[in-house]
Amino acid sequence: MEPSLKSIIPQLSEVFSISPAALYERQRALVRAGLLKSKAGHGPGSGVKANAYSIALLVISLLATDSLSEVGERTKLFAGLKSRSGQCPLTGKTTFALAVAAVLDSPVLARKVTHITVTRVGHKAEPRARALAHIYWLDDHIFLEDNQPYEEDLASQSAFGPKAAKTKEPQHIVVRASLIVPLWFKEP
Question: In this structure, what are the phi and psi dihedrals at residue 156, rounded to the nearest 5 degrees?
């Protein structure tokens, strides 16, 4: 039986350096927004299942916004971003959420990924047109030593979101949030 997401929040809070209470509130916001399904009851078998997809949504919510009041809307926006190439070259998935879940579900893929990013532009008129996400990974033939600095141009990438705008847009504040996977975390 899959454990509940709530039961693994203490471990996730250590990984993400965020309090268990804050992560649990994000989970609750995702349930209220209809992005996560919760089975009613108490004890084993109830609550939100801890699977790759539910954890992916929680991770995306951390990257997509700092504000608890925006968790549902922003997570839905970023989770649903379509692959710019039709499907992610690393995972074969069509949306950002499915691709992140595939990475979390596969130790082979997880070892390749260097970081996952979302880019938010500070303009509310058309948030979907200004939302981007990327998964960066190292191909099998590239190896980094423990102390070798990582350079983004060494990585392959999968982009999610709209194609580049054809018209020049006014400049706005851009926030880029990244989940960087350190080499020590990838040890088998």
Answer: -85, 160
Backbone dihedral angles phi then psi of residue 179, each to the nearest 5 degrees:
-105, 110
Given a contact cutoff of 8 angstroms between Cβ atoms, the answer to whether 48 and 12 are in contact is no
Tokens of 20: 């268990």
Instruction: Decide: residue 160, CB within 10 A, 0-12 exposed, 13-18 middle, 19+ buried.
Output: buried
**CA triple 15-118-178, angle to 5 deg:** 35
- Distance between CA atoms of residues 171 and 154, nearest Å: 29
Chain segment 54-96, per-residue pLDDT in tens: 999 999 999 998 889 999 999 999 999 999 999 999 999 999 9
Strands (E), the chain: 113-121, 131-137, 156-160, 174-180
Mean pLDDT throughout 162-169? 58
Closest CA to 173 of 119, 129, 118: 119
Please classify residue 129 by burial: count the beta carbons closer than 10 Å to its beta carbon, then call 0-12 exposed, 13-18 middle and 19+ buried: middle
pTM: 0.82
Q: Is 59 exposed, middle or buried (0-12, 13-18, 19+ CB in 10 A)?
A: buried
